[in-house]
Amino acid sequence: MVLSHRQGGGVATKWSRGRRAPRFPSNTHDERFLRRVTGTGTITVSTVAVVGASRKPERYSNRAVRMLLSHGHAPIPVSKLGHDILGLKGYASLTAIPGPIDTVTVYLSPEKQLPVIRDIVAVRPRRVIFNPGAENPEAADTLARHGVAVIEACTLVLLATGQF
Predict the structure, then answer these.
(1) Measured between alpha carbons, how far is 98 from 23 in angstroms, rounded to an integer?
(2) Which of 13, 15, 71, 141 has the greatest CB tally within 10 Å of its CB?
(3) Higher per-residue pLDDT: 36 or 88
(4) Residue 81: is it exposed, middle or buried by C-beta count within 10 angstroms (0-12/13-18/19+)?
């Protein structure tokens, strides 16, 4: 199933089987809130691979790395040359990343995605986000067949609206 941020008249409203994304209070470090949400009082930090990450601060992929950091996620830059970005170790491929990956957010045009899709299938993340301009119906079908949830949305908007 491919989910789109465009559903609901252009507003990200419903994501999965009619359920709304949870709304978090401004102080998500409140222990009572964490116990209610997680049952344990702790939050697991999600590892997010940013495919197509750029060292140029004006690029959306670079903004995504910064915004993921500011929202408490663990971004991993992935680029053709494997450059480090913002002091974070960069990798040339998803398969070079040690440990599990929760989310892959893609900032590559469909023409450049074939090797990346193979890597995504190999590392089996929980979900893949195709950002605007990276949408790829064939890749989405392939990933869905391999049990990877696919979302067509803007990572920056998802983070800004608390729906990431």
Answers:
(1) 32
(2) 15
(3) 88
(4) exposed
**Residue 47's CATH number:** 3.40.50.720
The whole-number average pLDDT for the span 39-62 is 84
DSSP state of 130: E
CA separation for the pair 49, 40 (Å, rounded): 26
Domain count, the chain: 1
Task: Tell me, yes or no, if the pTM score tops 0.85.
Answer: no
Measured distance between the N- and C-terminal CA atoms of the chain, rounded to whole angstroms: 17
- Output phi, psi for 113, to 5 deg: -90, -15
β-partners of residue 151 are 3, 129
Q: Residue 109: what are its φ and ψ, rounded to 5°? A: -70, 155
31 occurs within a structural domain: yes
> What kind and span of H or E run contains 51?
strand 47-51
Indicate whether 143 belongs to any domain: yes
Helix (H) or strand (E) holding 144: helix 137-145
Q: How far is CA 97 from the centre of its chain?
A: 15
- In whole angstroms, give the CA distance from residue 63 to residue 114: 24
